[in-house]
Amino acid sequence: MLLRPLAAAAVLAAGLLLRLLASSTASSEVVWTAGLWTLGIPLLYRTARGILHGRFAADLVAGLAVITSMILGHPFAGLVIVLMQTGGEALEHVAERRASAAVRALEADAPREGHRMDGARITDVPADEIAVGDRILVRPGEMVPCDAIVESGESQVDVARLTGEPIPIRASRGTILHSGSLVIDGALVLSVTALSKESLYARIVELVRTAQASKAPLQRLADRYAVWFTPLTVVVAGVAYALSHDPDRLLAVLVVATPCPLILATPVAIIGGINRAARRQIIIRHGGALEALATVDTALFDKTGTLTVGRPEVSEIRAVAPLAEADVLRWAGAVEQGSGHLLARTLVAEAHRREINLPEASQVMEAAGRGVSGVVEGRAITVGAWSLIRERAPDALPVFSAIHDSGAALRAFVVVDGRPAGSVTYADRVREDAPSVVAGLRAMGIDRIALLSGDHAGNVEAVARAVGIDEVAADLLPEDKVAYVGRLAGAHRRVLMVGDGTNDAPALSSAAVGLALGAHGGGIVAEAADVVLLVDDLSRVPEAVAIGRRTMGIARQSIAAGLGLSGIAMLLAAAGYIPPAAGALLQEAIDVAVILNALRSARPGGLKNASAQPQNWFIGGPLGLFRPRIEGTR
Questions:
Q1: Is the distance from CB of 474 to CB of 455 less than 8 angstroms?
Q2: 109 — pLDDT class (breaks 50, 70, 90)
Q3: Which end of the chain offers a freer environment for a tag, N or C, measured as fewer CB atoms within 10 Å?
Q4: The pTM is what?
Q5: What's the rounded Cα separation, in Å, for the pair 285 and 462?
Q6: Is the pLDDT of residue 488 over 90?
Q7: Where do the domains of the chain lie, and which CATH numbers do they carry?
Q8: Residues acting as catalytic residues
């Protein structure tokens, strides 16, 4: 792409050099003519192909100018037009280049094989050869290759890539598991309920592929202006020729009216805006995303890892008298040191944060997914879910029942020598800046904001209340999020989707703009998105929108100024005051002015005034901590 403008510039330079050295126009004319026909024909072909496909673009006037310069023998003027036209295309190509590997990344991470069981015989087979009804073995550390139901075995299973929820689920007989789930600490025997190609993970891959293929290409800003400027140019050129019968005037009008400001202003401004965003660690993957950011009027947020920190934290410790919180944390942390469970690591980290020295535990035994027990300083300690306490220490249940019934939450109960000692409550904390981000987007004129999540309705509503969102959709699968985005797009809403997990990838791909928190979701979600935040800072979301609005405002300003100057030059050329060659040089002077103005988009400043509404918006501020309760058991 960059070779075309470089070739045009080389031909022009060669012609000028020949003219200077030989003091003759003949040699330079030959060079320019050859260059014009060599480089102009492909340009005309691309323009004609676009018209045949219904694209009434800004390129049309440039094509007419090139054709006229060929017919009338003005190769210098024609070559200048070719140089600017191909240069603008190259800039736009650089601005909009996107080598997304979202689908390839998803497919590369898909389970490839399974262990099929035929009686006592176990055979490794490709995942796509596993049939419905087959019995398969999934060992710790392996992914479930097909949707299936557990026949035997118990294990913790990581389902984060499917639901976005960070806490593993406990799988036992009768549990339904989907392909892409990761078995953690125990082997499972499964009965397959769906082929690999029909499984939930395969549907996620297909949703991303379909969303990317069906997303309508954004109409170039230049083409929207060309709809009226191109016919105006043709009319003025036609009138000039009709009144003067001078073909040079016709060419001069076309040359000065060649919409280089249209062709150059947008890509130059977009490149500047993309660079400006990159300095703020906001990666905008292509120019169309920047244009779309400037027009969004709806924002959809994932919950876990997006509006929340994405990991459970100890939110409350209750001690049964005469024990204190520190006693409960010390006993529980001692035995939890021997567990690899996420909640165990969280509790131990809380003990270290409070500078509590944890004694060594012995005889540590873990009940997969339910808790852990051991002996600490001669005392029998059990830490676990309600079901484990009911089994191991039923006498403690009357004391714990009030806590257990006080509301749905993720809790661990602590028993010492069979007697109740206390409880630990976990919660996924809402990000401190989330309420100000939501308020900032509303102040920018984004009038519809919703929270979409695969979590239970009670948890989602609690987070929504904490951040100031009143539209909620819970218990959603990835395809449900895509359908939600589709309904809004069908109602002519321009949707910004913000997420961080693999389960968000289809919705990110289908939205007008998909924005990923790349610091959390990694490669797949980043590839599926149009915009990626490299830092774990939610406040960059409204900043990205502001950069988009400012950039496109500068682009429109540059276009308006460029077209205004071109319009004045067009009238002077029609009156015979500007010959074609001079018109080409004048047009380049206008282009330089347009480019210099468009380059302002790369500089900081003006972001707070970039909203479509007159209100000021503010990111940050003194906020309290919100700790919504998360339903579930260990």
A1: yes
A2: low
A3: N
A4: 0.64
A5: 34
A6: yes
A7: 3-97+215-274+547-603 (no CATH), 112-145+147-194 (2.70.150.10), 282-308+431-545 (3.40.50.1000), 311-430 (3.40.1110.10)
A8: 302
